[in-house]
Amino acid sequence: MKKIALALLSAGLMMSAAAQAGPEEDRKQLIDFYKSKLPTVKFDDMVYGALALDKDAKSQYDSIMEFPPFESVVEGGKQMWEKPFKNGKTFSSCFPNGGKNVAGNYPVFDDKLNKVVTFEMAINQCLRDNGEAEFKLGDVNTMGILTAYARTLSDGMKMSVKVQGAGALTAYEAGKRHYFQRRGQLNFACSTCHVDNVGNRIRAEVLSPALGQATHWPAFRAGENLVTLQTRFRQCNNQVRAVPLEFGSEEYNNLEYYMSYRDNGLPLKASVFRK
Ligand code: HEC
After folding, report:
1. 65, 92, 214, 244 — which has fewest CB within 10 A?
2. Distance 236 CA to ligand 1 centre (A)
3. Residue 165 CB neighbour total at 10 angstroms
4. Sign of the dihedral through C-alpha 122, 127, 131, 134
5. CA-CA distance, 232 to 238, in Å (whole number)?
6. 225-238: buried (b, 16+ CB within 10 Å) or exposed (e) per residue?
7. CA-to-CA distance for 10 and 16, rounded, in angstroms?
């Protein structure tokens, strides 16, 4: 009974949002949903995901984050970020403010290209503009490590993704559809787990709220494995035995765009521990 009622809530979020057709209404509805579903979790604490629902796990997180075991990886990313290109410039030359407080603006919708551009794609654009070889999207040892540092330059910045114009709205709506659409042999949508079953356990894991899911990447699972947001998409697709999509595919980029917009107002913090 309980499950059915919740499933209807999720459908309600999807449909009433569609009827009003506004990203800002969607965002507010989701905030209200979790406010009543998880009344003890403060808005800013949504960035801790499942940890916000589990005191012991959160205190483990806090102590690990004092001396993160992945610090040297982030340091490696800093070296990559600061290493001059052949022309003498560095990554910081490609971004306003030297790359500080920019990651929370991404993804952006580029009207000229008529597509979503993620932070990773902007980094590749920087490499191209400077005559360097691009990184492979999804490659942990280049793009992953670089962003593990580059995104920390925006730690504390509030997510502030914009959806303006028809193209942007279309991409946003496609991302939103992906989140609420059932798929895979198990026929689960992202929302089945992260909205309808938020706080419930699946195997040993507590299911995180949808809100806050785009704020803290990459994460280091078990303190070691670097996991990017799109790697996490793939893992979650696998959980329901759906075929994972390519890194940087239009569908994943739109999903990331939708999820990042939804997190507007939450503080970004990159390179965090996850169990
Ligand atoms: C079968 C249930 C299930 C489905 C369906 C599912 N996930 Fe997950 N997801 C999990 C579990 C379990 C975790 C790890 C615990 C947690 O953080 O929620 C997780 C974690 C995540 C995280 C990381 C949260 C954090 O703070 O570290 C993101 C992001 C995420 N899922 C996105 C998605 C997206 C996007 C979809 C749809 C493509 C999806 N999930 C579908 C089970 C699911």
Report:
1. 65
2. 5
3. 11
4. negative
5. 10
6. ebbbbbbbbbebbe
7. 10
Provide the sign of the torsion angle of the four alpha carbons 166, 169, 175, 179, taken in this order: negative
Residues with CB under 6 A from ligand 1: 49-50, 188, 190, 192-194, 202, 205, 207-208, 213, 219, 232-233, 236-237, 239-240, 255, 274
Closest CA relative to residue 95, chosen from 62, 65, 129: 129
How would you class 191 by CB atoms within 10 Å of its CB: exposed for 0-12, middle for 13-18, buried for 19 or more? buried
Index of the ligand 1 atom closest to the CA of residue 179: 37
Tokens of 41: 């979790």
pLDDT in tens, the chain (275 residues): 345 455 556 666 775 545 556 999 999 999 999 999 999 999 999 999 999 999 999 999 999 999 999 999 999 999 999 999 999 999 999 999 999 999 999 999 999 999 999 999 999 999 999 999 999 999 999 999 999 999 999 999 999 999 999 999 999 999 999 999 999 999 999 999 999 999 999 988 999 999 999 999 999 999 899 999 999 999 999 999 999 999 999 999 999 999 999 999 999 999 999 98
Report the alpha-carbon distance of residue 138 to residue 115 in Å, rounded.
19
Q: What is the C-alpha to C-alpha distance for residues 270 and 156, in angstroms, rounded to an integer? A: 9
- Distance between CA atoms of 236 and 244, rounded to whole angstroms? 8
Atom index in ligand 1 nearest the CA of residue 242 equals 38
Alpha-carbon distances of 171 from 15, 108, 159, 164, rounded to whole Å: 17, 11, 18, 11
- Under 8 Å between Cβ of 229 and 245: no
